[in-house]
Amino acid sequence: MKRIPLVDLRAQYRLLERDIRHALRVIFSDMKLFLGENVKAFEKEFAAFCGVPYAIGVGSGTEALHFALRSLGVGEGDRVITVPFTFIGTVEAILQAGAKPIFVDIDPFSHTIDSSKVEEKITKKTKAIIPVHLYGQPCEMAPLLRLSKKYGVPILEDAAQAHGAMENGEKVGSIGKAGCFSFYYAKNLGAYGEGGMVVTRDKRIAERIRLLRNHGAATKYAHILPGFNGRLDEIQAAVLRIKLRRLSQWNALRRQHAGRYREAFADLPIALPAEGAQKYHVYHLFVIRTRKRDALRKYLLDRDIETGVHYPIPLHLQQALRAFRFHRGDFPESERAASEVLSLPIYPELTSNDQGRIIRGVRRFFKKW
Ligand SMILES: Cc1ncc(COP(=O)(O)O)c(C=O)c1O
Fold first, then answer.
1. What is the pLDDT of residues 242-268, one digit of tens each?
2. DSSP state of 273
3. Predicted model pTM
4. Is 343 in the pocket of ligand 1 (CB under 6 A)?
5. Domain co-membership, 212 together with 271
């Protein structure tokens, strides 16, 4: 039987192949590989997609977060609030800026930051709050924006998994002071290499990030500040421009697949992804929860169906962060989620037959118990 992968980009490539080959041919004939027309155009198009005036292409989502934090003035000794249930890039960016991560547990239904627990963690040293729109689901932004105003602490959205997601009709990334995206290949908008983007309405933040990504240079070899080698390259920008034109349609297909899973699993003893009112979830991942997670995962793999676990170890229990002396039990909802979440295959090109096989596999597993 054909193996169903967690992510399959081959069908998407077949659809785009002609356009991509043409764009690459043009780049290779000019050999303008950095900060050329494609990056400029993609920044403009992605800013328009998010509904903001500025977008700055960088080398990855982690760099987007790192540069955005620095552009907000976050540095040595500062504190940044975020969740322990996210990809480590969120926290690496905080550490790279010289700051300390302060964790707030997640809400167990949305798997995003529990906004009722944020205020008690704010101190004079808090310089930013990073809500993560995990799995493509927008966070509850209104309470965070109220706290941001009350304490003068900017919100930096980690939208790495949520290109095109919306809350109250507003695109994520455009709601806080700045928003950060990853173009890691498996994302809803993925490059054929690495890439990232910061979007913002703030001209000063945009200008600062433009310097940071390019060795602090305003013009060639005139370095205004010590920066980084952190540019988005022309090849990735050209691919991303072609894909961006189809992103909304792809997100709609992901939502359709999510709807079918939801219906098919409604009577099973599993928790289905929350989709809050006024939220447009873009299902980067379709994540179910069950205490039988590991057994279900093995059962599906035995039937050639791949699944994922995002994420098996919450960040406060990672060896990389042991210097902060967190303990098991510090963030119980994140720990419980880490032991129960399972990501099923979801991508725009998932065929009806393959999805039917996944659904039958999950249903048969629960019949067995
Ligand atoms: C929530 C989250 N934040 C940050 C990142 C970092 O992005 P990148 O891998 O492009 O550095 C990712 C993805 O990989 C992510 O999923």
1. 999 999 999 999 999 999 999 999 999
2. P
3. 0.98
4. no
5. no
